[in-house]
Amino acid sequence: MQPYKSGLKPFSQDLRKQMTNAEQLLWSRLRRKQVLGVQFYRQKPLASFIVDFYCAAASLVIELDGSQHFEAVHQVNDKKRDQGLAAMGLLVLRFDNRQVLQEFDEVMQVIFDVVERQIPPGPPFSKEGKTGP
Q1: Taking 70 as the threshold, does the pLDDT of residue 133 lie above it?
Q2: Dihedral angle computed from the Cα positions of residues 29, 31, 98 and 12, in that order, rounded to the nearest 10 degrees
Q3: Is 59 helix (H, G, I), strand (E, B) or coil?
C-alpha cells in the first residue's frame, strides 16, 4: 500500500459520501473484487492526493473527470498529478463522467484489459488449493 498524508483521511471519507453518478456506477462494478479478483479502493489517499479509485495489486489509479477538467488550469493540474502518481510507479487511467455514463461497457473493458496486463501472474494452484507443483 502506498503512503499518504494522514490529514487527507477525513476528506476522503467525505468524498465517499458524495460520489457522483458516474463514480457510483463505476464503483458498483469495481467493488467486491469483481475485476479479476483484485481489490479496488474508492476515494483513496495516496501521497498528497486523493484518487477516485485505486488498485494496489495492479498499481492502477482510475480518475473520473467532470466538465471542469476540460479547463486549461485543471488540465495543467491533472498533468502534474498524473506525473506525481507515475513517479510512485502507478498507472493512471482517466475517463470523463460522460464516458462512464454513456459508454460503460467500453470503459469496463479498458479497465479489465489494463488490470489483466498489470497484475503479475500468480503461482499455479494444486487440487488441494495450495500453491506449488
Answers
A1: no
A2: 170
A3: coil
